[in-house]
# Entry
Amino acid sequence: MATVEEWSRVAELGPFFVTSLQAEREDDAADPSWASLTTLVEDPAVLASRIAQTREALAAAAQRRPEEVEWRIAASIAHLGLAARFVAPLMGLAVTTGKVAPVGLAQASWRPILGGPYPLYFTESRHTPDSGEHASAETQLAAPPSTSDIPTISRLFATEILDGPVRQLTEAVLRSGSIASGLLWGNVVSGVGGAAKMIQMARPSLSTQATLFVDELLRHEPLLATAMRRENGQLQRRSCCLMYRLPGAGYCGDCSFSAI
# Structure
């Protein structure tokens, strides 16, 4: 079980790692602006709306009409944003504390806004030391895992997070229209790789753990063979998110085409 202090430390890694505690208050529980992430996989209309909103935003940025943006581009970018935001704080917790939080879509809620990381909270139990505990808040923080522990932690993360809620999100997008599975899992590896880079920038002392965590994930399903390391050590996915097909978009840093 992660402590409030540990989640707060994770949030210090950057905006993609922030999770709200507001929903733990009874007066916020009925706030209609928060929605369960389960709606994205249980109600096709919710996912369709998210993809349509993404399509409109991409069209506006490219100075095109929405119908001029391919549906699969919008679906890919919508999926990338959903998956990357969900994965980042959970990966941050794993790399900074060695803990894999038992969070499924039913324990996650969001405010479905566009532009930047969407507001997110987890209802996974958070332990707050009471006055009867002798240890200080600082001593409640778990130490970062050793490099020898990373393989075990990453395998658990792959099983509990990637093969669980992230697979549910991915399969929902696959059901929503014609789009390649390999492309979507490439989006997930982009999200994982992006989270690792942000961890390294915020906590240079964890660079080795973050890199090893990603490399271990690439050794197992569902991310097996979805990416490789370039000679300079940078991650390169084996598929493309399709963003390059938008006028003026160019290639992402980890794109399979960017080295061509």
About this structure: Helices lie at 4-11, 39-42, 44-61, 71-97, 150-176, 181-202, 207-217.
